[in-house]
Write a structure and sequence with these properties.
Blueprint (H helix, E strand, L loop, with lengths): L2 H13 L21 H7 L4 H8 L8 H10 L4 H10 L16 H8 L6 E5 L4 E4 L1 H7 L12 H7 L9 H22 L4 H9 L3 H7 L9 E8 L3 E11 L5 E7 L5 H12 L9
Antiparallel strand pairs: 1-2, 1-5, 3-4, 4-5
Amino acid sequence: MDREALAEFLRRRREGLQPEDVGLPPGVRRRAPGLRREEVASLAAMSTDYYTRLEQRRGPQPSAQMLASLARALRLSVDERDYLFQAAGHGVPTRLAAAGHVAPALLRVLDRLEDTPALILSSLGEPLVQNRLAKALLGDRTVFAGLERFDVYRWFTDPVERLVYTEEHRERQGRALVSALRVVYASTGPRSQAGELVRALEGVEEFQALWERHEVMKRFADHKTIVQPELGEIELDCQALFTEDQSQCLLVFTAPPRTEAAEKLALLGVVGVPPRAEVD
């Protein structure tokens, strides 16, 4: 671990960002350039003291998970993320979609979407980051670990996952998830993260039946009916914006103006994040 290189890199990247670059309000006039240490720490979900010690060359070696959070908070490119890991004494993470590093270009768009639910997914359906309204609409989908991080795995192993959709939309959603998985599996092979998901689900009869259809598609637009615990059913349009390499996408949920759905979306800001549902 090169403490000096790590500290200097973190400081330079922090000073190169403005609050509006990361979705924060400008606030009062600042004496020093860039973000404050406490702002970076908050964005990375770590204590200010921990982050400060890293910049002061006296912190412990951060874990790979902590470095990934810092890379996201500082809006690092993939090359910058790799350097961060190397300076901290870690191997460079894989550049496959499942690595979890959020594309800075998508993050910049997400930072500006304050009035509509939006989230960023990997090509395997792993929710990487959600804005506040997306958490209120869908629940916090970034809290899972292991294979449960992936929507397709939870869909076929956890009945609670289906409660976010009305019954008539569930078959279509299951087909879409399996189809998207097959697209990634075809390009990355059986030894990839996609292959691991397929092997983990091959004992699930419903998944196997859909997998054997060999359907492939990547949707750019859709119409969904989402079930929000406090607001009920909400009919929404869902648009997808993909990165150039198709490894990640930004999903944005909207409703036509002056509709019941638009009124319900406006209420999301006050209902908060719904608790995890239970199946009777």
